C-alpha cells in the first residue's frame, strides 16, 4: 500500500472500539484483531517496529491494506473478532485446527420428552450442550454409560403422538417408554435432570437421589425397581472412585495447559466440578510458532470458551492473558456471573496447571507418534527428510547427538539410533565427557563426535554409484526414483558379529542445537576424515535445520511427517541424555568416602553403614569396633580408620 494512502486512511480512522483486518496485496486476510481505539492500534503497525515480536514483524512486512469494523464496546469487539477468526482462519491468528472434529452432547430440554444426542453444531435453540469433546469414541462411551444409568430416549420419534409399541430399548431397560406414555412428562423430566446433573459433575446429588429412590422402592415392595437402582448406584460409585479428588472446597474450575514445539501447539483443558476432576481434553491449535506463551494462552482461552457451553467461576492458566479485563468481561457475559482468571504460582493449583501442561505435552507426543505409525508413513517421512536436506540417498540410519549437564557439572553426551524411522535402543550409546570445562557445549559435542567415529570404518567410494560393497553402512537406496509405497530391502547397515557396532556409519548425523553445535560437529567429522557424511542441526525454538556451508536455515512445513520424525529423534536424544545425567547425579549424591577405600566394595560398605548407621558414627568408632563388623579384618579396619579420619 502506498505510504501516502496509508496516512490518508489512518487520518480518518475512528477512535472507537472495534475489529481490524490486515490484508496482503491480494486482499487475503492475514490477521484479525480487536482494539479499544482502532486508530491507535492500527497506526501502531505502521510506525516504529521496535519491541515487535518476530511474528508481528513478519506480519507487518506482508501487510498491504486494512479494513475496520466499529463496535459499541471492547467486549463486543472481542466476540466479533472471535467469530471472524473462526470464519476466515487468518494465517497469523491462533485458531483451532479443525472445527469439525469437536462434538457436543445435546439435551433437548425445551421438549416435553427431551432426548440426548450428539451434534457438531451448538446453537442457541434452548437445548443444553456439553462439550466440546475431541473424541467421538469418548462421546459415544459417555452416552452409552449415561443411558445405562438413566433410561432416557435417544430416538427421533415425534413425541406429540402416542405410539402403539415401544422399541427394543424399552425391553432392555435403556428407555422408560415415553413414546407409549409409560412415563409421564414430570417423571421423565426427573430422569433428564439426573442426566444433566451427572454431566455437570454433580454425582453426589445423583447418588443421594438414587439411594432415596431405592429405599422407597424397597419399602413399597417394588424389589425389581429397587434392584435396578442398586445397580445404578454401584455404577455411579465406581465412577466416583475412579475420579481424582482435587479439593472439595474449591468447587468448579477449569485448568488450562499448553505444549509448544515450534509451530505445533496443543492446548489441554482439565475439567473440575465439585472438587473432582471429571474430564480432560486436548485441542490442536494452528499457530505460527512465533507467539509468546501469553499470546497463545489468550488465544486458546478465546477459542475454547467461544465454543464451550459451560464456563466455570474460576479458570487456572499457565500464563497471563493480554487484555485480561476484557477477556474476563467476555467470559462473565457467557457465564452470566463473575469469572476469575488466575495464574497460580505455588501450591495445589500450580500443580494442577503443571498437570494440564504435562497432559498437553503427552498429547503432542502421541499425535506425532500417530502420524508416524505405519511403515509407509515412515518411508514417506524419510523421503521428506532426504529431499528437505538435499541428500543423495535415503537416510535409513539416523544418529542424533545431545549434551546434558547441570551448570557445567557432570556433563554427559548421548547418541540415539533410528533405523528406517524406528528407535533401535540396543544401539544407543552414552558418553561421560572428559575434557570439557564448564558448560562448553561446543567442546562437548566435538569430544563426543571424535570418540564416536574414531573407530568407524571409512568406506572407499566407487564412482558416483556408491561405496565399497565390503563397507557396513551408508544407505544404498537412492532418493531419485524412491517410492514410499514399495517396502525397503533388508537394512544393509546392520553390523554382523564380526563388525564392531562402532564401525557402522549413519546416513545422517543429527545434532540437537544450532549453528555453533553444528560447526563443532563438522570440525570433529573433518578430523576423522568423514566430511562426506550428511550432517544437520535442529534448533528447538523455531524448529529450523542448519546444514554446513549454508547460512540460511531449512524450514520444513509444520505438518510435515519428515519434520515430525526429526523432532521425535531429537526429543529421544534429549530424553536419553537427561536420563543418563540424572542417573550419574543421583549416583554421585549417594557416594561417600567409603567408596574410595581399597578393599571396601558395595557389600562391605552396606555392612558398615547398617552396623554404625552413618559415616560420622564410623569415624567415632575405634579400630576394634570396626573390625567386629562381618567381613572386615583388623588390617582393613586399620586402613578404614586411617583414611576416614583424614
Provide a brief overview of the structure:
The protein has 646 residues and is α+β, with helices and mostly antiparallel strands. Mean pLDDT is 80; it is low at 467-472 and 492-499.
What would you note in describing this structure?
β20, α15 and β21 form a beta-alpha-beta unit. The chain folds into 4 domains: 3-91, 3-Layer(aba) Sandwich (GIY-YIG endonuclease), CATH 3.40.1440; 248-369, Ribonuclease H-like superfamily/Ribonuclease H (Nucleotidyltransferase, domain 5); 374-586, Nucleotidyltransferase, domain 5, CATH 3.30.420.340; 593-644, DNA polymerase, domain 1 (Orthogonal Bundle), CATH 1.10.150.20. The strands form 5 sheets. Strands 4, 8, 9, 10, 11, 12 and 13 form a 7-stranded mixed beta sheet that branches. Strands 14, 15, 16, 17, 20, 21 and 22 form a 7-stranded mixed beta sheet that branches. It is an alpha+beta fold and 646 residues long. The radius of gyration is 33 Å and the shape is globular. Helices cover 41% and strands 18% of the residues. The longest helix has 29 residues, at 561-589. α4 crosses α11.
Q: In angstroms, what separates the terminal alpha carbons? A: 80 Å
Shape: globular
Oligomeric status of the shown chains? single chain
Helix and strand composition category: alpha+beta
CATH architecture of the largest domain: 2-Layer Sandwich
The CATH topology of the largest domain comes to Nucleotidyltransferase, domain 5
Mean pLDDT: 80
Count the domains: 4
